[in-house]
Amino acid sequence: MPVRCGQGHTLRVTALPAVHHQLLAxxxxxxxxxxxxxxxxxRHEYENRVSALTL
Length: 55
Known about the structure:
Helix content is 51%, strand content 0%. It has helices at 17-27, 37-53.
């Protein structure tokens, strides 16, 4: 089954919370002044979902 990524599609990753924290740490440097607002929002929403995993 192909994975569709791009506008309007979300890639879901099933993994341990530690893996999600690592992915989030790698995404953070990409959230700079040249990033698109939608990218910043997506990373922020992902960060919220990851932090909810540990509660």
